[in-house]
Amino acid sequence: MSNGQIDLFDDVLKTDEKFVIVVQGVYNKHNQIIKKILREYPGLDRTAMVRLFNHLKDTYLNESFEEDMVFYDITVYTNEDYAADHIFAHTKLHRNAHEWTHTAK
User: Looking at per-residue confidence, does 88 or 74 come out higher?
Assistant: First the structure.
């Protein structure tokens, strides 16, 4: 996986680890940040997660931004738990950008 932060401790993941990918649109409306879940893909094995993560980055790179949208956010969680300490990969695509960020946890 390129263009996105990847957990440096891949080798400590369980072999049957499940992943969830969440795609969000992040909006700035009246100086308030609002996050809207656009897609959610639970129950992915590692192979499916890698393929879908790359596919989503390619897809949203060409997707238009809605009014007031600041960026797209793709987050991969382990253990199907949406807690910050379970983030496996995270990347953003800002309005008018042509590539995804490399975001640290």
Answer: 74
